From TrEMBL:
This is Glutamate decarboxylase. It holds the Pfam family Pyridoxal_deC. The lineage of its organism: Eukaryota, Fungi, Dikarya, Ascomycota, Pezizomycotina. It is an enzyme of class 4 (lyase). It comes from Penicillium brevicompactum. The keyword Cell cycle does not apply. It comes from the Eukaryota. The keyword Lyase applies.
């Protein structure tokens, strides 16, 4: 299987040819090599959107050569960006005025900027701290980009364990045990990459309010809603599950437009409750282009294509379209979860499976607390492992072998290990299927049949 190591220089490095070649020849050569790739639609582990209508493709083609940094030359892209920010600020219940938002190159850049803001705020508030190295609270279920923030910006990462016992989400009491005067902030996840669950953001916010009353130390929350930011606002439980700027403790929120926002790669969105929360020395003014431009980013020149695609989709789909897409994805996740349970081979960790009477208690989804789970507090992904009964009967069968066999069928489904996440601290091997809007019921039926047939071939 390919890995990042395959990107290292080869023993016989390629060199640019002395002479060029015919367009058709080179194009055919490149396309021939790409034929070995997994078809993007059949890459079932990815969160990013893979299929677009013709209008999106054409708009992105035209906007791709427009540079987001050149706001005077391409004012349409700047207007699209600010309108998208305004729409998302409303969806996430930001104050009507005073908020600040930007487009980013995905959620990773947004998370780094959110963390950098919190660190700089702490430095300004505690210039004479005897401990010059701050810390940040991160759940073990956080995306790797949150750990990148800590590593890249010299912040101690205090990792709060998650497990079956905590519902695979961060625990407010465990967060409280890790706080001190040098804590710059708490990162919480709305739709974890590993199991899809939403962290209990409201509970952590309440705990931080109580902590401030006791100590006088105000600690902000950043919500990494890379996937959930375009799912939760369109769910029926969005009024009861409070996760966004309705909580004063939430300082900033990010999301990925190219995931459930259905925009082309790569675009993310970052919104702060108040622009005043961003230290002025982080807002850099550039004037060597026509006009002047305030910039807060980790990059500069970027294509306007993804922003145009996001703007188009927000208006093309509207509230109803996004609500229907979210509902379709949830229902398909529930369908696949149910079918997997019914085999007796698998048990789901994700929260989209109704309790199934024909299975033993250990083999039911332990996290499905509402009837039907259609509006579970999770993004529409299906994460599953072998059932207890299956492991007892076939201890020689390993879950990664299922993933490898599915890859041979040109269906890429990742397997990974949740280290120490079991109820007794044991490791849990899992497989993940991300249910995207462009995934048809026919494709999911093929996925289910493939998984069932692969397992049955492994136990013969």
């Amino acid at each position: 299987m390919p890995s990042n190591e395959s990107l290292a220089p080869s023993s016989q490095p390629f060199k640019i040819p002395l002479e060029g070649a015919l367009t058709d020849t080179v194009s055919a050569m490149v396309e021939k090599e790409m034929e070995s790739d997994t078809p993007p639609l059949r890459d079932l582990g990815r969160f990013t959107t893979t299929k677009f209508d013709d209008a999106t493709t054409e708009l992105v083609r035209k906007a791709n050569i427009r540079n987001q940094a050149c706001v005077e030359e391409y004012p349409s892209i700047a207007r699209f960006q600010q309108r998208c920010v305004s729409i998302l600020a409303s969806l996430w219940n930001a104050p009507p005025t005073g908020y600040f938002g930007i487009a980013t190159t995905g959620s990773s850049e947004a998370v780094l900027l959110g963390g950098l803001t919190m660190k700089r705020q702490w430095q300004m508030k505690s210039p004479n701290s005897p401990n010059p190295r701050p810390n940040v609270i991160i759940g073990a279920n956080a995306h790797i980009c949150v750990n990148k923030f800590a590593d890249y910006f010299d912040v101690e990462a205090r990792i709060v364990p998650v497990s079956d016992r905590t519902g695979f989400t961060i625990d407010a009491k465990a967060v409280r045990q890790n706080l001190d005067d040098n804590t710059v902030g708490v990162f919480l996840t709305l739709g974890t990459t590993y199991t899809g669950h939403y962290d209990p953001i409201h509970s952590v916010s309440d705990m931080l309010d109580d902590y401030e009353r006791q100590t006088g130390n105000s600690i902000p929350i950043h919500v990494d809603a890379a996937s959930g930011g375009f799912v939760a606002p369109f769910s029926s439980n969005n009024n009861s599950f409070i996760w966004d700027f309705r909580l004063p403790r939430v300082q900033s929120i990010n999301s990925s437009g190219h995931k459930y926002g259905q925009a082309p790669m790569a675009v993310g969105w970052m919104i702060w409750r108040e622009k005043e929360r961003i230290p002025q020395d982080l807002l850099l003014e550039s004037s060597y282009l026509r006009g002047s431009h305030t910039n807060f980013s980790l990059s500069f020149s970027r294509s306007g294509g993804p922003v145009a695609g996001q703007y188009y989709n927000l208006y093309r789909l509207g509230m109803r379209g996004y609500r229907e897409a979210a509902q379709r994805a949830r229902e398909r996740a529930q369908w696949l979860s149910t079918r997997l349970h019914e085999t007796g081979y698998f048990a789901c960790l994700s929260d989209h499976s109704p309790p199934i009477a024909s299975l033993g208690p250990k083999d039911r989804s332990p996290l499905c607390h509402n009837k039907g789970c259609t509006d579970a507090l999770a993004i529409p992904i299906v994460v599953f492992t072998f059932s207890d009964r299956f492991r007892e009967l076939y201890p020689q069968v390993r879950l990664p072998a299922v993933s490898d066999a599915m890859h041979d069928l040109k269906l890429s489904i990742p397997s990974y290990t949740l280290g120490g996440w079991g109820a007794q601290g044991q490791n849990i091997d899992v497989i993940r299927v991300v249910v995207r809007d462009e995934m048809t019921t026919e494709l999911l039926e093929e996925v289910f049949s493939g998984l069932r047939d692969v397992v049955e071939s492994l136990i013969r």
